[in-house]
Write a structure and sequence with these properties.
Length: 216
């Protein structure tokens, strides 16, 4: 029997995708020894305002372009699954892809407010979690409600490539060189960036299905 494909999952709006997304993803892949990494381009984050959010098709196209020529696959599979919350998406992916071993990836800014996520402890019991340090957020993350719960389950960064052997819950804190890119700054400088993306209805590179139609 062949070994399971180790796959990192990084969710986000990708509004737009930028070199910082790519850099941190490749750093995660090296640190964790991943075979592949998926960008889960969110149809809509319940914790983020809708104002200023580009259409899903444009954000997916942006992510596909930024992931080109790498082991990163950008997907809007949540739109097909019909899931809105991370815990529901991850449970669906585990069921749909039993030949893969998943690890959830996020930045320290997300760890700082993870206690606001629906059933965040359920996520922790479903798969390991790797957190990348982010300048300006680390102190908040270490003092966060979720981190207080996770503290007994933190694994040493030196053992990060052994994550497939860990029992859940398990969390590892990783530190990579900081990257200056910011989607917020990109939108501020170019609020109409998405209008230059080809407006055709794209096909999801993971599911090979056409992206569902968006409704305003």
């Amino acid at each position: 029997m062949s070994a399971l494909t180790t796959t990192g999952l990084l969710g986000g709006s990708f509004n737009p995708a930028h070199p910082g997304h790519r850099a941190i993803s490749l750093a995660f892949m090296r640190a964790l020894g991943l075979d592949e990494l998926w960008w889960l381009v969110s149809p809509g984050n319940p914790l983020k305002p809708k104002a200023g959010m580009a259409p899903l098709a444009a954000r997916l196209a942006s992510a596909q372009g930024m992931a080109r020529r790498s082991p990163i696959r950008a997907t809007a599979i949540e739109a097909e699954l019909g899931t809105r919350y991370t815990v529901d998406t991850l449970r669906a992916l585990v069921r749909r892809y039993p030949q893969r071993r998943f690890i959830w990836l996020m930045g320290a800014d997300n760890l700082a407010q993870m206690h606001r996520w629906r059933d965040w402890r359920g996520i922790a019991r479903l798969m390991p979690i790797a957190v990348a340090a982010r300048p300006g957020y680390d102190a908040h993350a270490r003092a966060a409600v979720a981190m207080g719960w996770f503290r007994p389950f933190v694994r040493p960064a030196s053992q990060s490539k052994q994550w497939t052997t860990w029992s859940m819950p398990a969390l590892v804190l990783l530190r990579f060189p900081p990257d200056p890119h910011s989607a917020t700054l990109i939108r501020a400088a170019d609020p109409d960036w998405h209008r230059r993306v080809i407006p055709r209805r794209p096909r999801d590179p993971l599911t090979r299905r056409l992206l569902p139609e968006e409704h305003s």
